[in-house]
């Protein structure tokens, strides 16, 4: 038995000391972007996020709808793994379809395909345009395109063929495969197009849509891949990984993450090693969760793309009460950051850290980033929002969203917590969180707060923030001093003079 000579501390037990704010410290100059996956020191990571926020691997949080929204504002979502492999892969695929720029056609039909079938396929894939080829296959000879604007089932009949309503190739403006996205957009605006087919060897290799141009301008921080598709992550486990990983990779998942309350295990190492042996550096697998430097080193040596830090600190988690394991989030983070930096110095490889748990408000996020976290994983924060998959309901005159932990009986994710079969005891609760509105508004507000904190500390990027931040523990009396009771004005009653 060994007792560590420390008091386990939380993020709320620290404050930041302001640094020198120079003329360079303006909101436009502050970059809160962060690496998401391991990389050589001094080199760019394979995946980077402009907003250092990712969504938790939870049924109540990470749906395709939320994944699209979060990627659009510069973050990334991890589709939960407590479902059938094929269902999770379908969720990933649906996010990848919401790409901007060059799209792969989701619907290809033959000229003999009935309009009723064209309409059904477009509806099933949530697309507005189909490519028409001679064979009806994606690699067939290109004949034209047909969209919902080209026919009406009541007017033209469901049995009418696509060939009679399509816009033929000869009358279309097209572009070669060498065209850049900016050149493609120029053609779209010059010729008043809704869609521009990109052609190579008599076949369509991609489509550029006018509607994606506005989305790209609106979401200029979007997390996208090399083909301008939105990036999305997916949770995996250490049991069916040999089936789940290939399916998720095939669906287009950009990064995977092991979903476990305790990641310091040979099973996680074997899962990461399987991915690296099978796919090399092309597939990124994050691991965790851990609370000390030993566990970080173990997973980093196995090849983890990033490591999640935190056990029992989540708002919905009861692991500490049920099993007595964990560590204060600040203490865990500071220990693992030290190990991460030492590992980078020794090996030349930087393994990003994800702070997962113990984040009750935006100031805690700033504290975690100051302590050395590269990005933060949030469950409750996103569960409150319109884009989360849970129900919105009214209780006592106030609106709430349902929220339940993966360790709760509702989730029935027994294997995540090392329990076989049915859950013997719970490590999470099932409840409600106050409804907070749109993800877009909330993330923008959080970004503004993080930016303001960094400006006050004299930092314009996270690397400098890690290096230069000065923190101080706060006493109970400090909390009392900032907690003096003030009767808040009710705007609807007294608007003031």
From TrEMBL:
Residues annotated as binding NAD(+): 259-261, 310-312
GO biological process: GTP biosynthetic process; purine ribonucleoside salvage
Keyword Metal-binding: yes
EC number: 1.1.1.205
Key words, A-Z: CBS domain, Metal-binding, NAD, Oxidoreductase, Potassium, Purine salvage
Catalytic residues identified in the record: 317 (thioimidate intermediate), 416 (proton acceptor)
Enzyme class, UniProt record, top EC level: oxidoreductase
CDD domains given in the database record: IMPDH
SMART domains associated with the record: IMPDH
Domain CBS: 166-223
Residue ranges of the TM segments: none
Amino-acid positions noted as binding K(+) in the UniProt annotation, renumbered to this chain: 312, 314, 317
InterPro entries, A to Z: Aldolase_TIM, CBS_dom, CBS_dom_sf, IMP_DH, IMP_DH_GMPRt
Keyword Oxidoreductase: yes
Source organism, top-level taxon: Bacteria
Family: Belongs to the IMPDH/GMPR family.
NCBIfam families assigned to the protein according to its UniProt record, in alphabetical order: PRK07107.1 (NF005493)
Cited PANTHER family: INOSINE-5'-MONOPHOSPHATE DEHYDROGENASE, INOSINE-5-MONOPHOSPHATE DEHYDROGENASE RELATED
Name of the protein this chain belongs to: Inosine-5-monophosphate dehydrogenase
Organism: Streptomyces vietnamensis
């Amino acid at each position: 038995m060994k007792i560590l000579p420390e008091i386990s501390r939380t993020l709320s037990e620290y404050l930041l000391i302001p640094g020198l704010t120079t003329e360079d410290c303006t909101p436009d100059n502050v970059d809160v972007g962060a690496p998401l996956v391991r990389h050589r020191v001094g080199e760019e990571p394979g995946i980077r996020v402009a907003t250092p926020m990712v969504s938790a691997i939870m049924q109540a949080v990470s749906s395709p709808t939320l994944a699209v929204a979060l990627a659009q504002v510069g973050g990334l979502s991890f589709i939960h793994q407590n479902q059938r492999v094929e269902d999770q892969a379908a969720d990933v695929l649906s996010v990848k379809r919401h790409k901007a720029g060059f799209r792969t056609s989701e619907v290809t039909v033959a000229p003999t395909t009935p309009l009723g079938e064209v309409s059904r396929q477009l509806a099933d894939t949530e697309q507005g345009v189909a490519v028409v080829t001679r064979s009806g296959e994606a690699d067939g000879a290109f004949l034209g395109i047909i969209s919902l604007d080209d026919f009406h089932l009541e007017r033209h009949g469901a049995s009418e063929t696509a060939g009679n309503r399509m816009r033929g190739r000869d009358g279309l403006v097209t572009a070669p495969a060498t065209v850049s996205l900016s050149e493609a957009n120029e053609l779209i605006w010059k010729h008043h197009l809704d869609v521009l087919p990109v052609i190579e060897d008599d076949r369509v290799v991609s489509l550029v849509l006018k509607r994606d141009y506005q989305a790209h301008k609106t979401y200029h921080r979007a997390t996208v891949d090399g083909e301008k598709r939105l990036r999305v992550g997916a949770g995996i486990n250490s049991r069916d990984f040999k089936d789940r990983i290939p399916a998720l990779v095939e669906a287009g998942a950009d990064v995977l993450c092991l979903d476990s309350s305790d990641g310091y295990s040979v099973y996680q190492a074997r899962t990461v090693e399987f991915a690296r042996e099978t796919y090399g550096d092309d597939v990124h697998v994050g691991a965790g969760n851990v609370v000390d430097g030993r566990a970080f080193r173990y997973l980093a040596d196995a090849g983890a793309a990033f490591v999640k830090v935190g056990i029992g600190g989540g708002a919905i988690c009861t692991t500490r009460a049920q099993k007595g394991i964990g560590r204060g989030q600040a203490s865990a983070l500071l220990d693992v950051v030290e190990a991460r930096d030492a590992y980078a110095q020794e090996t030349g490889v930087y393994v990003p850290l994800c702070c997962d748990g113990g984040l009750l408000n935006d100031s805690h996020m700033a504290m975690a980033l100051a302590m050395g976290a590269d990005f933060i994983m949030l469950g409750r924060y996103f569960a409150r929002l319109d884009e989360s998959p849970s129900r919105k309901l009214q209780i006592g005159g106030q609106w709430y969203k349902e929220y339940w932990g993966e360790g709760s009986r509702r989730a029935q994710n027994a294997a995540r917590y090392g329990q076989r079969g049915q859950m013997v005891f719970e490590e999470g609760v099932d409840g409600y969180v106050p409804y907070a509105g749109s993800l877009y508004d909330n993330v923008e507000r959080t970004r503004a707060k993080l930016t303001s904190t960094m400006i006050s500390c004299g930092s314009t990027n996270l690397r400098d923030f890690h290096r230069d931040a000065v923190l101080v523990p706060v006493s109970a009396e400090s909390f009392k001093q900032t907690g003096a009771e003030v009767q808040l004005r009710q705007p609807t009653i007294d608007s003031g003079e």
